[in-house]
Amino acid sequence: MKKFYLLTYGCQMNESDSDIIRQALTQNNYQETYFREEADYFILNTCSIRERAVRRVVGQIHDLQQHRRQKPELKIAVGGCVTQLEGKDLAEKVSGIDLICGTSNFHRLPEFLEELSGTNKPLIRLEDPTISKQNDLPVKNGGHRHSTCFLPIMRGCDNFCAYCVVPYSRGREISYQHAKIIEQINILRDLGQQDITLVGQNVNSYQDGDVNFAGLLRTAAATGIPRIRFITSHPRDMSREIIDVVAERPNLCPRFHLPLQSGSDKILGRMNRHYDRKKYLATARYIRATIPGSFLSTDIIVGFPGETEEDFQQTIELMKEIRFDLSYMFKFSSRPGTKAHKMTDDVSAAEKQRRLEIIIATQNELSKLQNDRFLEKAVEVLVEGPSKKRATEMMGRTEQGLTVIFKGDNSWRGKMIPVRITETYIGTLKGEALIA
Ligand code: SAH
Ligand code: SF4
Ligand code: F3S
Question: Among the atoms of ligand 1, which is closest to the Cα of residue 164?
């Protein structure tokens, strides 16, 4: 049996696509390996969101050339956002690639790998992501390596935020059929899946006929899957209706990822985000007031063109006011083809780094404070298995998605166990199981 090694960069969409790769290949007599030396096929699912990501791909392929000396028959396939943006030119720019595929044709990988054995020339199997069609959602009945199963409900993005390449790498936004999504959730539920994450670049703008995202959430909740999450939400499209549905249904997890990007209205305008700090704050306050124990995470970019110290201070102020539970923080990286690429990248590298370090420190304090909310409280933990450090300790997650470590045994795997939280850290909680 031929073995493949799969390396995934990027966001939830890439993770979800990698699940499709895994499923397609394992169902066609390929086996996944976690050791590079064993691989007959090396598959790289790339991300192009920041400049460093592109350089990483080039580095990876360079390293693989060493491997190839020992194993000349090794085939290298590259897919994802970098290939979709660079197109077939990538094969000329970076030597050693055998197959270039896109972001929407991964389910055909077994067929493409088959084709590879007959040729030495790089095979280009890109699709045009700008072609808008409500193409069928590939059936997902396995393949995921995470405790939560990512289920795509849409693809593409139409928002054209000034800094972002995604609308170019993934094309126009398309919502998958509501009935198909529910069918998938039912299949996964019958397979015993307990935790599902509905994914899209902007799930709140989901629309299939007269079913909007709140409608989809209602029917998804009715399938009875114990935990349903979703990422990513765009603040412009986060309605009270969606928040109310999450508040009403116990199996819709109280976790929201609502990328703020900046706390300055001037910068938000330049970023083409279509909301201001007032609107964002109102949404965040509504979430906090409506859903006890809500977990609110965000993305922040520092050093966007034109960001002054004052703009930056407004971001920090808003972070503190909202008390984010978690932030993904980035230095602005100018990407060719985007609107921001035409703006002067006027915040120096050193200043971007300084601002980044300040918000990381701010967020660490906030995360600890937020986690302290759970001290001495009993939380329901879905047990995933032994902790990485000790076999006598189990690891699981709260409905907010927080990692909890506690003494227990392996027979608890897959069960919901009540745990009293006794210690909190930035990224994890520790506790004691409330059962013998
Ligand atoms: N669809 C999601 C996010 C997609 S990209 C959304 O709209 O929220 C994930 C994050 O990467 C973004 O939220 C943004 O914070 C960051 N990002 C995107 N482009 C970037 C760039 N050019 N430079 C720095 N960070 C960027
Ligand atoms: Fe990028 Fe904006 Fe679309 Fe998110 S909403 S993927 S940041 S263009
Ligand atoms: Fe990266 Fe593509 Fe996701 S550029 S962030 S993998 S949509």
Answer: 19
